[in-house]
Design goal:
The chain is of the alpha+beta class. The chain has three helices and five strands, in the order E-H-H-E-E-H-E-E. The chain has a five-stranded antiparallel β-sheet with strand order 1-2-3-5-4, covered by helices on one side. A hairpin with a 3-residue loop joins strand 2 and strand 3.
Length: 141
Amino acid sequence: MGRIIDLEIPPQNRHLALVRRAVATAARQHRLLPDRRVDDLSLAVSEAVANGIDAQAALGRDDPVQVRIDLQPEAIAVTVVDHGGGFVPDAVDPVPAAEDPRRLRHERGLGLALMRNLTDRVHWHRTGEGTAVSLEIRAPG
């Protein structure tokens, strides 16, 4: 285990920029990832937090969303925990491919695909009251 940074944010979208900035700053100071991969991780984490906020809003929950940044020697891992009731990622309808005209009907719903494509590892598991999403990007090489 590396250096740990724990954040709790109110479940409001206006705090997403703060989360992105905290992840990017911690990752850049850790000096493990190139800037492009830091940006990938920041965006993926932002999507995970936004999904948690939306899930909690749907249930009327105002518990804070937890974000844990784990700066490991070979990777940076971020875990986002919400209180939004949980879900099964494989049960979510896939978003059509970018070339598919049906994609134009999808203003939202790209978060899971972004998390999968921007990180080296993503894992979802249910908690007692919601979902924990673990995202990881490994050092190059």
